[in-house]
Specification:
With 227 residues, the protein is mostly helical. It is built from 11 helices and 2 strands. Helix 5 runs antiparallel to helix 6 and helix 8 crosses helix 9.
Length: 227
């Protein structure tokens, strides 16, 4: 236990945690509303949207790749979700459409990297430009909104005292931890990210794993946009 505590105190994460604590203490001294329940819920709700997309990004980075199109994926998935929602008045169908768009974009990124042999930085940078242009043209740079009652509850509603986005984030974090540390996919991700050539020589399905992780990254980006 003492060795674990010592490792935690001397890690980079400990420094970041200390900086975060000092920042929170400093802000709380400047304004009395910082440590109120309402503000904490708002901060957690906003942070959860970044965290959901960040889970997919972490998996991609562990592979030794990068995805610069996450923000543009969120934009396009959000536009598709609202369009489907207003057309069919179904929150479920809008969610399915958004996730399908995210999965398709992730699949395209994965195939560009694995089959076309394009560096992920270049491939996703190009995808970002394409998606950003598509979002601007399709909306004519005008904000669009869902017109179905209940849609806003997805992002602002609560399950008991816990905001729905925060609950979704913690569930996904638990699944993310389990996948990385207790499944074959997690071991493949670490192996490929550590040395892809050695992973290939060991018979691991490197290309299939990389495509799958890019798809998961796209799905999680779309989910955060929908919420």
């Amino acid at each position: 236990m003492s060795r674990l505590l010592s490792r935690m105190l001397h890690s980079e994460q400990a420094g970041l945690l200390l900086a975060l604590i000092l920042l929170c203490v400093g802000i709380s001294l400047l304004t009395p509303v910082f440590f109120t329940a309402v503000n904490i819920k708002n901060v957690l709700r906003d942070a959860s949207l970044v965290a959901i997309a960040g889970i997919g990004m972490v998996m991609i980075i562990l592979l030794g790749e990068i995805d610069l199109s996450v923000g543009s994926t969120q934009a396009v998935a959000g536009i598709i979700a609202v369009a489907v929602l207003n057309q069919f008045e179904s929150v479920t169908l809008a969610l399915v459409a958004a996730l399908a768009v995210g999965a398709f974009i992730g699949l395209c990124n994965g195939l560009l990297v694995t089959k076309a042999g394009i560096n992920s930085l270049i491939a996703t940078l190009g995808m970002m430009a394409i998606l950003r242009g598509a979002a601007m043209v399709s909306t004519q740079a005008v904000s669009i909104q869902g017109k179905v009652e209940g849609f806003i509850e997805v992002g602002t509603g609560h399950l008991g005292p816990i905001p729905i986005p925060v609950l979704v984030t913690f569930v996904l974090l638990g699944l993310f931890y389990y996948v990385l540390h207790h499944t074959i996919l997690g071991r493949y991700i670490y192996a490929i990210g550590g040395n892809i050539q050695a992973a290939r020589l060991a018979g691991l399905a490197g290309d299939r794993t990389r495509v799958l992780v890019f798809v998961l990254g796209g799905v999680l980006a779309a989910l955060s946009a929908f919420i």
